[in-house]
Each structure stands twice: as structure tokens, then as C-alpha cells.
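hiii, so i know i said id send this last week but things got crazy w the move. better late than never?? heres the sequnce for the chain we talked about at the cafe, plus the structure i predicted for it. fair warning i was half asleep when i ran it
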Amino acid sequence: MSTFTNTLSRKKKQRILYLGIDVPFLICVIALLSIGLLMVYSAGWDFSVTQLGENPSYLFIRQLRFVVLGSSLAILAFIFGYKRLKKFIVTLMVLNIILLLSVIIFVGETRLGAQRALFNGSIQPSEFSKLILVVYLSFWLNSKQEQLNKFSFGLLPMIGILGITSGLIMLQPDISAAATIMLIGGIMFFLGGGELRQITFILGIAIIIGLIIVFLVPTGKLRLAEFISGIQDPLNASYHVKRSIEAIVRGGTFGVGIGRATTKFTGLPVAPTDSIYAVIAEETGLIGASSIVVLFLVFLWRGLTIANNAPDLLGKLIAAGITVWIFTEAMINICVMVSLLPFAGNALPFISAGGSSMVTVLSGVGLIMSVARATAIKKNKEEGRPLDEIVDLRRDDRRRRVSRARCSASAWR
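okay and structure toks below
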């Protein structure tokens, strides 16, 4: 009996397919994308007609195309592998700076008082900058481990990298994106092994410069004043925040139903993009709105788990950096909608309508999954079971033998 049980156990292990995919992470991303497409259709059909002069399904179809494009890039990144980016990372960083300069020089599309996009709004370089900066800093921090805590070789170059990128974004001006860049930089420096005093120094400088810019830029000064007034009395909050809170209150616990929200028709600004979380809260209530937060927490958990299990420091930095960046973007958007932060133009990842954000975020997901795949390959090699090994996938003797990749049971955890 014991021999039979051991034989059966070995056969079950042999049937496990190992592709290095973190299933909970992938399911979480698919769930967020599905919710996003549904809510873009709900929040975007009126916007497509009244604001864009297109047919009701225009924004939904456009978003679907970006999801397909972003998913294709994610698969490509997954297969290509994060280590191979070393040959292209400097070129990508230079191209990113050129695009940021182009927005200023050639006067990109104006959105919310800022010049942020090129080619009639098709490309928003500040979105690409976030992912490129995370990847670039990952390679840079990985190569500078011995000199990282020396001012001239660690902190000073780091300030230069962040300063150039965030400075070009500030010239648009896009305060929220520039602040996100600085925050990402501080987090990456910490993950890379930077000393706490140096990180505090970087963030301190960033806060001082940020406050100076906020008071010099009319838009930033107005947003800060409206936020402080809103904290003191919700009736004095900005029009955008008041309409968002109205939508959330109308939604109650269970919501008014998908497609039945009214604030998106009566003045809620940019409902399919920046304000889509308010539409979710109105149509699905506290239950639906909380579910979005839970999904992003699962995304954070699984992303950091992949980073923790990465086979090298570079993989840890890339997976953790991208995960924290996407989670931070989501929390900023949600906190703005409930008046916990000053108004910012951050999109809600995977959900808000927008091509640059969707393509960039999904590309980042592909890189995270490539780290998980590298971990899987390393474990297989350590256990003497390469990915191309032939695995018996038959149940007893009634199914044919096929050649498939396989993995250890731990890869599905």
C-alpha cells in the first residue's frame, strides 16, 4: 500500500506544469483589467459622444486595443527576460529624455493646464518615464553596490538621475508625475541598500523643491489651497473632489448598479480616466470600491513575494520597484478621490482609460513575471529538472504522452 501511495504521489508531481507563472498575481491582474474594461464602457459611452464626438463604444474599443497591445508587450517581456534589457537600458533612458524634451519643444497636447502628450494625445512620455526610471535605477543600483553609500558615487549621481527626469516633467508642468518620480527614486534607493540618512536627505530636498514649485506654479498652489480648505470643511473642497464624494455617498454600501450612476452625466470631471474610482464607488458601492483596494493589496503582496524570491538583486529591484510604483499610483488616485490627498492627475492602473498608462503598466507586469520565470528556471536547474524535460501528463494509461514544460509544486504558490 505504501509503495502504491508513493508511486501515485510521484506521478502527481510529474503532472505539474511549471512555467514560472505566479497564478494569484496573474489572476489579480486579469481581474483588474476586466473590471477596468467594464467600467470604462460604463463611464465612457457618454464621454465618447459628448466630449469626443464619437460613437458610444469608441472609448471602450480604444481601451480594448490598448489592453491587447499592453498584454502583447507583457508576454514579450516575460519571454525576453529582464536581464537582456541591460543592452538597451541606456538607449531607452536617452529616448525617454528626448520624448520629454519633445513635449516641451514641440508643444504637446494640453491636458488639465499642462503640455503632457504627443501625436494628438497618443503618447504621454511622463507615463513611460516611470517604468523606464525603475528599470534604469535597478541596473544602476545593482552595479553600484560597493559605492552606493559614498556621496560622490552614490547619492550625487542618484540626485542627478532623478533631477533630470523630474525636472523635465515639471516643465510641462506635471507636478503629480514629478512627485511620483521622486518618490519612486527614494524607494528604489532604499531597496538597493542606500543608507537611511541619505534617503532622508533625498526626500528632504525633494519636499523643499516641491513646495517651492507648488507655490510658484498657479495650478499647484490652487490645488494645495483647495485641499486644505476641503480638510477643514468638505463644502469648500474643489469641484472635482466634491462631485467625487457625491458619487461615493450615492453609491452607499451596494451601489446603484452598473451603468446607473448619474454623476458621470452631471459634471463629474473626466469620469473614464482620473475619476473612474468615483464611478466604481457609485455603481458598486462600498463593497465594489473596497474590492478594488483588496485587489491592489493582493497585487502588492504577490509582487513583493516574487521580488523576495528573485534569483538575484537585479530581479529583486525590478520586481519590487515596479510593484511599489503601480501600487503607489493606485493609492494616490484612490486617496485623491476621497479627499485624503491634494488633487493629482495619476491614473488608476489597469482601470482608467488611457493608452500610455495601460501599455506601460502591463509592460511592467511582464517584467515582474519574467523575474518569477527566472526564479523558476533557477529552481529547476538546482533540482536537476530543466524546463524542456519531457513530462508524463497521462492519467493512468488512457491519455497520450506529450512533451511539456514542468515545474516544482512550489512555483504555483
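btw Confidence is low (pLDDT under 50) at residues 11-17, 388-413. thought thatd interest u
miss u guys!!
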